Amino acid sequence: MASGSSLPPKTRGQTVSILGGVVQDVCTIMDRLPDDGETVVASAFSMAPGGKGSNSAVAVHRLTRPNPKNRQPPANKAEEHPTDHEEDVHVRMVGAVGADKFGPALKKNLEDCGLNVDGVRVVEGQQTAVANILIEADTKANRIMQYPGVNHSFQASDFMTAESLGGGVMPDLMICQLELHREAIEQAIETAGNQGIDVLLNPSPAYYLMPEIYLQITHLVMNESEAILLSEIEPDDIENQTGWTKVADSFHALGVKNVVITLGAKGAYYSTEGASGNVEAEKNCSVMDTSGAGDAKPQHGLLNTLAV
């Protein structure tokens, strides 16, 4: 903990903050992706709330609460109160939207999903981030082009205190991606580490981070391409579990405690201080669209993290 620092008051229970992008997704579905200079007629089009940060925040909120479909209606008014689990886990989004036709609606959607949005600022004169997503109808493969917009308005100076990481409240766990400026994310991680706050980093979109930042990361969750890029290990050296062990060990050497590498249909590889191995992918499921899958994946281990 940083010397001379004073910790802000905590809320009852545990607080999880998600520091990341709030994005308007524009999705187009087609039989196949167009070649260079080619026009392809699409079969469907939709717009929906998105962003790695927003997707993660909604996933955390849902994973820490019973499915509403399985709830029994209260017998009387006296029983209409949050469950103990809901009171124990508070989920707060920290991000930004533009004061345009997308921004306020996206913030309202997060609030309607049950998240605290005190840390989501609406910025005049800047545009909300937008992601154009192209999806192949049969394979569900996607290509994403994202305009960061107001997401890049954050500076390192915005994350100098513990409460700035939780929208006014010191979190127990901070989850972040790399949708904001590198300097802002690195400062947020450094501040969290100095204040004893656990950090879960999903390094997407992947880019180089200062090596000393990894010392402050508790959980590092990434896909294959991100792991290869950030570890700088040649893809030809990764053919089996031994290869992924080498990748995980490179991050452990930098100070990361827990490493998870998602492998798509092949499941995931994990490495902690006391154990490592592979987890098979779920086989009894139907893939509708892989957009956002990587954003939600890191949250599957969240309940165990909060229980520690």
Structural summary, described in words:
The protein is of the alpha/beta class. It is 23% helix and 26% strand. It is built from 8 helices and 13 strands. It has helices spanning 52-63, 84-88, 103-112, 182-194, 224-231, 241-252, 293-296, 302-307; strands spanning 14-19, 23-30, 44-50, 89-98, 116-123, 129-136, 142-147, 173-176, 198-201, 219-223, 258-262, 268-271, 276-279. It has a 9-stranded mixed sheet, sandwiched between helices. Strands 3-2-6-7 form a 4-stranded mixed sheet. The model is unreliable at 1-9 (pLDDT under 50).
Keywords:
alpha/beta, 9-stranded mixed β-sheet, 8 helices, 23% helix, globular, disordered N terminus
Brief account:
The protein is α/β, with parallel strands linked by helices and 308 residues long. The protein has helices at residues 52-63, 84-88, 103-112, 182-194, 224-231, 241-252, 293-296, 302-307, and strands at 14-19, 23-30, 44-50, 89-98, 116-123, 129-136, 142-147, 173-176, 198-201, 219-223, 258-262, 268-271, 276-279.
Largest sheet: 9 strands, mixed
Helix-strand sequence? EEEHHEHEEEEHEEHHEEEHH
Which percent band covers the strand fraction?
25-35%
Low-pLDDT residue intervals, each spanning 5 or more residues: 1-9
Q: Identify the strand order in the major beta sheet.
A: 5-4-1-8-9-10-11-12-13
Spatial shape? globular
Q: Indicate the radius of gyration in whole angstroms.
A: 20 Å
